[in-house]
Every structure is written in structure tokens, then in C-alpha cells.
Specification:
The complex is a heterodimer of chains A (about 400) and B (about 375). By secondary structure, chain A is of the alpha+beta class. Chain A has helices at about 5-25, 25-35, 40-55, 70-85, 90-105, 105-120, 235-240, 250-270, 275-310, 315-340, 360-370, 380-390; strands at about 125, 145, 150-160, 170-175, 185-190, 195-200, 210-220, 225. In chain A, β2 (about 145) and β3 (about 150-160) form a beta hairpin. The longest helix of chain A is centred in the C-terminal third of the chain and has 33 residues, at about 275-310. Chain A is globular and about 75 Å long. By secondary structure, chain B is an alpha+beta fold. Chain B folds into 3 domains: about 5-120, Acyl-CoA dehydrogenase/oxidase, N-terminal domain (Butyryl-Coa Dehydrogenase, subunit A, domain 1, Orthogonal Bundle); about 120-220, Butyryl-CoA Dehydrogenase, subunit A, domain 2, CATH 2.40.110; about 225-370, Butyryl-CoA Dehydrogenase, subunit A, domain 3 (Up-down Bundle). In chain B, β9 and β10 form a beta hairpin. In chain B, α5 (about 85-100) packs antiparallel against α6 (about 105-115) and α7 packs parallel to α9 (about 300-330). The chains are: A alpha+beta (about 400), B alpha+beta (about 375). Bound molecules: flavin-adenine dinucleotide.
Amino acid sequence: MNLDFTDEELAFRDEVRAFLAQSLPDDLRRKMIDRRHLEKDDIVRWQRILNARGWATPNWPVEHGGQPWSPAQRYIFQEEMALAHAPEGSPFNVNMIGPIIAKFGTDAQKARFLARIANIDDWWCQGFSEPGAGSDLASLKTRADRDGDEYVINGQKIWTTQAQHADWMFALVRTDSSGRKQQGITFLLIDMNTPGITVRPIETIDGGHDANEVFFDDVRVPVENRIGEEGRGWDYAKHLLGNERSGIARIGLSKERLAQLRRLEVELSADGRLTAGERDRLRRKLAEVEVELRALELTQLRVVAADAGEGGAGAAASILKIKGTELQQRMTELAIELAGPAGLAMPEEEESGAALEDGWIAAAAPFYFSMRKVSIFGGSNEIQKNIIAKAQLGL
Amino acid sequence: MDFEYSDEQRLLRESVARFITDRYDFEGRLRAMQAPEGWSRDAWSDMADLGLLGLPFSEEDGGFGGGGVETMIVMEELGRGLVLEPYLSTVVLAGGAIRHAASAGQKQARIPRIAAGELLMALAHQEPGGLRHGPDAGSSAERRSDGWVLTGRKIAVLHGATAEEFVVSARTNAGLSLFLVSASAPGVRVIPQRGYDGIPVAEVVLDEVATGNESLLGEDGGGAAVLERVFEEANAALTAEAVGIMADTLDVTVDYLKTRQQFGVPIGSFQALQHRCVDMLIQVEQSRSMAILAALSLSQPPAQRCLNIAAAKVQIGRGGRFVGQQAVQLHGAIGITAEYKVGHAFKRLTAIDALFGDADHHLDQLVAAGGIPPGNRGSN
Ligand SMILES: Cc1cc2nc3c(=O)[nH]c(=O)nc-3n(C[C@H](O)[C@H](O)[C@H](O)COP(=O)(O)OP(=O)(O)OC[C@H]3O[C@@H](n4cnc5c(N)ncnc54)[C@H](O)[C@@H]3O)c2cc1C
């Protein structure tokens, strides 16, 4: 056993570090540190910088622009990105639809979409959830009726993140209601400019407008935009949801946040903004988080190693999801506690430069509220526990 | 021992509860929140008509002579409605400072107007860059022959933008003192902000604000003692408000679990979620007990009063966080939408913990004192 990275892995880490130091634009880094909202343009700009280096889609097959990295290298890459305050790429483009088209798409679909996905020439959104189909996704009802070489879509999706920016949606639709509910689901690529699509924003408790309802009224989609076979969409969707495994705990991000809280503790203590008792307690809380984070980091590395050896780690991904999201949420609790009453005031849309010095105070509450979502989406933490109980414990 | 309300208290509870169900539905609250002032003047005059705004003031001052239990009753029901109006800022905070420190003339000029819903006030105490809570302030008040000159910056002033007058804390040569400062006095700048819980806040900048001799509220140097008292009353009131919010939030969540279907059954049939709701209920009951303790403690000697209320604030800080977070979680995505009540309840519970010392702060008080004092628990 050995917990250290190899020399090659360390060299790789230095290469990633050097690239990030040189290529990450300062204004983006600043926004990330202050937890400010990233605009679509911010994400696109960074993705294109990564893409030019060949690192926008490392998890894709090599022949479609991926990297032949080992699991350890992927881990290093993610961690360095987080520690450098680099924005995450669009998960919908990079982690979800890209790998699906690469694996199950036709040659024509690959040629048409993959390069544009990598460069975010097209912005994608995920149309899975419906008002009646959340945790029980397979009960989805949005219909696709075949009419010649087109499907006609009617129904509604909900919680569609960033549908307002999207050029394309990958969606699960029902083409057959006769059998088991998992059967009869078809995976379609839908051009968001097609007539009959209406996007309505949903405001969330953090003040954001990234969630949407999407309505389909006789929306015509060519059959050539179907992924794989009709009625087998559930298989492709399961593959897509499983793809998030290695990054789902977002440990690098949590480490970066812990480091920021540590810096804050030092600054606030020096400025007399914490009593000695408060400082000691905060240090204790940070140490507790650090222990859990360190344990989770090693757990994740064990999962990564088991994956590499094809050891299989089905329930392990659920463990990472639960613990990783709990720690992300814990970090935001510590920040809002520190902000206190000063954190009551919500930041205005356009902040003045003066607000930046104590930007973490203004960001603490929206970030705390926003992060409640991480235990809900990607399969809620209750659903993850059901999976573990069944798959690992045999209950 | 007696946990029953008197007949009058029961009537009070029913009338506030009716006001909330009949005249303060969630949609109306959302509309009020989105209006420029962020709350409803109509609801405020309803509250005046119900006699709520004069409740804690003595009858000879023009109030109704209510005590801790009466305020608890009102705050719990207002909590159920997630009421946005300036009850805490005008009646409990500024009103409390006036009750405890004002001269007869100062009271006469204000209490009847507060009770009638005509005078809005706010407490301007918190400052940037200091501790998160405490009875101290860095703003200054300099003695002049004809009065005082105040300079400083205040933040998180609850309902500051609509206040006609502020109670301002500032240091004089004698120590921390309180002043009555008109919002329209030259040198006062009020910057309105939205609070994350829907309650508007403001930053108040005092730039050499000249005030008369009559602006001193209470004794020169006596401000900290008055503020401590006011914070205790505010924390007792917030504890009751939190109980109302938590109880209502649990009701809403349980109703949702009975109706929301996934996997062909109501999600309330899953034991994992049932147990979570039971854990929430336990927090509601524990918090209700502490709200009663806090309310009854208000008439107790200082040491007991202060520690009982600290204990109550610890309970609702922790319990409120649990109930708020779980209510959101059990709703799934709908719980994080701004159109749904539960998310607003979660945010208000978060703010309640942050105000006037969070759970950790009050735990420190208990640690320093060696625990909650035994003995007489208080009566009304
Ligand atoms: C911020 C945000 C962004 C999202 N973005 C997208 C997107 O871009 N595209 C998309 O398709 N979807 C998106 N979603 C939807 C997300 O996938 C769903 O919220 C999730 O699947 C849960 O479904 P639900 O919200 O309907 O909750 P429900 O399924 O109704 O669950 C409610 C509660 O019941 C619990 N529960 C359900 N079933 C069980 C069970 N069997 N045992 C125990 N507990 C159970 C859940 O854990 C939860 O606590 C997003 C959600 C959020 C919050």
C-alpha cells in the first residue's frame, strides 16, 4: 500500500498547475473566490481555453477529444482545477451528453455535435424531470408520437437548469405506455429553437433564475435526432447518470472552501471580529470538517483505484455522493454562521467594487441556500441510501 | 404548575390566528414582499386595530399591559404567517428601548403613535467589522452645548428604510448610550437593502448628525444595560416566532408527504421520511417548551432571565436549522423554489438564529455561567 502519487503523477500535477496559473483569467478566478454568479459567457470563455489545450473533455473517448488519463490523473486534474478556483465546465455538455453521443450516437450525430459540445458552440440542457417524475424518473409522461420521420412531442419538463441559455436539450420522452414504465422511454436530442417550445423561469430561494419549466406543444423532432433505439432510452439515461461517478463528491471544491474558511478565521481573529472563544470553536469545527474531508478523499481514491482494477464500486458512488454533498453543505453553514447579521443583506445584481472586500459575507447566505440542492438532485440522498441498503447491504 | 392560557390569552391567540388565516395568506405575503417597501401597510393597520402594536406597553403609557406570554402568543402566530411587517423592529426593539429607558415625555410622544400604527421605528445598533453580537458599538456621540453630534455606520437595521425614527447606540464619554434620531435629520443617510429572509434591512450612515438634548434615551452611559434587556425580550419573541414557523412548516411538510406520489405511493409511506418528520416534531416540541420558559423568564431576576433565554435561543437555533433544512429536503426541488412557503420559512429560521446572538453565542453564555440556574422558572 502507498498513499503517495507516483513521480509521473506528480509531474502531471505540476503541468496542470502551471497551465492553470498561466491560463485562468483573473476576473474569473476572482468571481469564483467571491462565489459570484458565473454568466454563460464566463463558462464558455473558460471552456474554450481548456478546449484549446485539449483538456475540456478529458473524460471522453480519446478518438473524440478525450485524454488517456489514469483515474489518478483525472482526480489530480479535478483537484487542481478546484484549488486554482477554476470554474467547472458545463456538466450537461461535458459529463452528460458528450459521452452519450460518443458511445451510443450515430456517426452522423458524432460528426454534427461532438466538437460543438466540447467548445460549447451549443449549450445543452437536461430534460429528464417532470412535475410527476422526480425520484421516480421512469414514470415520466412527456409523449413522443411518431409521424413519418418525425416525433411529435407534447408534455412538460421541470427544474431544467439553464434551459434559458440552451440551444439543445437532451430529453427522455415516452414513445410507448403499454409495458413496464422503464420500457417505452426514448432518448431524444431537441433543438430548443423548434416551434412549440416555451421556457418559463422558476426563481429559487437563493435569488437565482437558473431553474425552468419547459413546455412542449406539438414540437416536431426529426427521427435522426434519436439516440440509439426507440424504447431503450432508460438504458442510456442510466449510463449517463452513472458517468458522474468520479467527480460527484467534489472534494477538490470542498478543500478549496475549507482553505478559504481557514483564511477567514485568521483574518477575522486578527481584526478582533471573533472572541477568543469563538476562534477556538471555529478552529475545532474546521478540524472536524477536515477529518471527514480527508477520510472522504481517501475513500474516493480507493473507489477510483477499485474502478481502475474493475473491482466494481456501485454503492461506493452513492457513499461519495452522500458524504460529499453533506460536507459541501456543512462548509456553507460555517460561512453563514460567520457572516452573522451582516449577512442578512442580499447582494444586488450588480455589485459595487467596494462590496468586494467583504464579498464572502454577501455571498454566504445565497450560497448556503443554493447548496441545499446538492442533496436533492443527482439522485436525492435518501434515494442513494436506498441504493446502498439494497446493493451493498442486501436489505 | 400551570400550562394553560387564561381566557384573555386564548382570545388573543384566536384573534391573531384568525388574522393570519383570513388576511395574511402566503400569496398576499409574496405580493407584499415584492412591493417597493417589502411589506404591507394594510396589514400593519390591521395589526394596530387588533391592539397588537400597543400590547407590551403599560396601560398608563397608552398600551395594553401585556407580558411575556402575550408577546409569545402574538409572535408564534405571526411566525405561522411569516409576517413581514415591522413588529419586531418597532414594537419589540425600539419599543422595548423606550419602555425601559424613556422619560415620561419621550414615551408620551411615541407610545400612543406606535400603538395606533402611526409611528415606525427601528433599532440601529449593529456595526460592520465588529463582533457579530454584543452590547457595544463604535459609533460616537459628542457632547455639545445644545445637544449631541453623532457619527457612525450601522448595518442590518431591521426595517430601517421605513423608520421615521431610530434608536441609535453610540459611545459618549460616559460609555455606550442610546439616542433617538429622526430619519430625516441632516447627515442621516439610509441605504435600503433586501434581507435574505424577506425582511427589509438598511444601512444607516450618521455623518455628524446634530441632535438636541432631548434625544438622549435613558442615562448617559446607560445604553448597554438597556440593550441587554431589549435583546433578551427580542430573543424571547424570536423564540416564539420560530416555534410558529417550525410548527407550520412541519404541517406543510406532512401534508405534502401525504399527497406527493412517487413510485405509485405517497412519499409519506416511506419510513425514512416518516422518521425524519418525527425528528422534526421533537424539535418543535422542545422549542415550544423553551419558548414558554423564555416568556416566563422575562419577569425573573436578571441572572435567571438571561440564562433561560440564552438556553431557549440555543434550542431554536439548532432546532430551527434542522426543521428548515429537512423541510426543504423532504419537498425535493419544490422546496427550493421562491414560489413555495417552505423555502421562505427556512430562510426566516436562518435569520432568527443569526439575530442577537446565534446558538453558539448563547451556548458560550451558558458555559461561562456554569449552566442554567436551577430554581424558580418564572411565571407571568
Ligand atoms: C437546483 C436543481 C436543479 C435541477 N436541475 C435539473 C435538470 O437540469 N434537469 C432535470 O431533469 N432535473 C433537474 N433537477 C431535478 C432533480 O433531478 C429532482 O429534484 C430529483 O430527482 C428529485 O425529484 P423531486 O424534486 O421531484 O423530489 P421527489 O422525488 O418528490 O422527492 C421528495 C422527497 O422524497 C424523498 N424520496 C423520494 N422517493 C423516496 C424513496 N423511495 N425513499 C425515501 N425517500 C424518498 C426524496 O429524497 C425527497 O426528499 C434539478 C433539481 C434541483 C433542486
